[in-house]
Amino acid sequence: MPIFLLMPGIMVLEYGLMKLMEVSIPNFQFPVLMVPVFFMVFFIGAIGEEIGWTGYATDPLQERWNALRAGIILGTVWAVWHITPFLQAHYTPIWVAGQCETSVLLRVLIVWIYNRNNTKMRKKMISYHGM
Hints:
Layout: H1 2-20, H2 35-64, H3 67-88, H4 93-129
């Protein structure tokens, strides 16, 4: 459940902090009828991306370096991959830098969550098969 609520929770926290800092916030617009489309585009697309990052690259990187370094490497590649689309969308360099920083920090967090869940799964598999 925490994995599914992580990004919405971060967004709510960010919104609250912006309100506290009295930062100008655009009006909230949420087209309810677009939810299925957003789900298909973002969630289904993200599954493929996560299979690549987590399923293919995380373990080999952690075999060579520790989890933190693996997360930083993956997050940096992830951030660099998105710089061109951000610039093509005419975002400011400060905004792009913030997104890149967030990408690295988020990937470190994802690697940590992966390791925590992966360890629990291994323990369950060992206890199940080692009866």
